[in-house]
Amino acid sequence: MTVAQRMWLTPVARQRLEEELATLKKWTAETSEADDSNAVAVRRAQQGRIQEIHELLVNAVVGEDPPNDGVAEPGMVLTVHFGDPADTETFLLGVRGADYGDIEVYSMSSPLGAAIDGARVGEARHYELPNGATQEVTLVRAVPYGLHEH
């Protein structure tokens, strides 16, 4: 039996996903009569996105910030550096495809997200880049999204 991973979402991100889901369902109903190959491909893509959004919403944790314990986990805004302390990046460890405003989002399934998950401030981790090289990343700061200065 597979246990689905709980996904952290802000209330606004959940609302946007629900609105997208309603729109997709409406479009799917409107295009169900068309029978050409383009319409079939569009319906398949819509059904795939509907399923993806449905799974996100079913497994969503909404309105609960993770603990402010400095550990990298979903719902935390992370500042990391890549080998050189001057080369920093700040991002939300969350769900791609949900809008969180102007902050970059990395998912748990991304190489960076998977590598940094569970790290504590000051801890270095490594992950593989698309070109096969290994990248070091060090967690500098981790705060819950709700406490992050926007």
Automatic annotation (TrEMBL):
Key words of the record: Elongation factor, Protein biosynthesis
Transcription elongation factor GreA/GreB C-terminal domain boundaries: 70-139
Pfam families tied to this protein: GreA_GreB
UniProt record, GO biological process: regulation of DNA-templated transcription elongation
InterPro entries to which the protein is assigned, alphabetical: GreA/GreB_C_sf, Tscrpt_elong_fac_GreA/B_C, Tscrpt_elong_fac_GreA/B_fam
Entry superkingdom: Bacteria
Molecular function per GO: DNA binding; RNA polymerase binding; translation elongation factor activity
Protein name per Swiss-Prot or TrEMBL: Transcription elongation factor GreA
Organism this protein belongs to: Mycolicibacterium confluentis
